[in-house]
Request: fold
Amino acid sequence: MVLPIDIQQNTSLSLSEIADEITVVELELTDESRINPDRVRRVLLYDDQLIVASKNNILIFNIYGKFIRSIGSIGHGPGAYVEGSIGNLALDEKNKRLFVYTPPKIMCYDLDGNFLYESIMPRMSMCYKANMSYVSDMNYVNDELLLIVENLWIMDENGLFNHSGLYRLNSDLQITDSCTIRKTYYDRPVMTYHTYEDYIIFRDSTIYIYYPDSFVGDPAETLLRDTLYRLENNQLIPIAKLKFKNDGIDNLKDRYINICNIYRSARYVFAVYRTWLVNSDYHYFCYDTKTGKGYHMKDGYTDDINRLEAPVGFRPFNTNPERFYYWHTRQVPVGIDTPNPTLFIGKLKQ
Reply:
């Protein structure tokens, strides 16, 4: 699919047009369960439990918002993580285990909060000379832990490059297979940085991959990563391409497109991007494969169901993109303790 996007268009799209239902969850606030939505890395939904991971803690609530427990603690020993270091997590639903990436290790817990084991992140096979490696995203699919790993500042006979790869790990956290997403050469050391996640999405036995580039140097030299892939026989097969005017480059206005994410559900293709103007906000795109119509929103979706004043941007559940979530922080009078933000969970139309 080639999906044209006109960034001059601004279409209002209400959640009632794409969602069958939205559940409102008021998360209980205790001394242990305070949440800052700006620091949340991922939300997982499993067996009527919500797992909310931020940079500093991992919290479990029931589907009604009651706080149950935290997992792990800040420290330096086995099963502990350095403050602010939680990078991502993935859930093994069959064995009820949670894998947590906190550089430089991956830890495993059960859902009762018991620490099981940990391993220093294995050295990625073809990038043994990498000066630095970090996990950009992770998901647990078909009894394997999938990692997207960014390997930085590697030298070969052609010069300096960064390598982005998809790695499969077994339950012992050993690499069993891998494939290259891209290999990019630079004339100087470049530190890539991504402001979004949800690059590995699992839906109906299919693994979908989107992985962006960070902006480097002159916008005219930037290659727009505009394609969503599916993983098949350890190869990336293109399935959807976003088509911007001039391939997303507008030198006259010093504006270029930086796509944060592309993913799809059974019916819709979604994308989030920024134009990287000064203080650029996120833009949202939704394409309805049933009607063939695309919607471009400069601020977000309109929550006409809960009648929120500000537009919302949502994220998918990475093992079930038919559902999505977003946050809303309520304003309270001065002198009153601010409650936890409200979590909204939606279900897409088929």
Residues 134 and 150 are 5 Å apart (CA to CA). The mean pLDDT is 88.
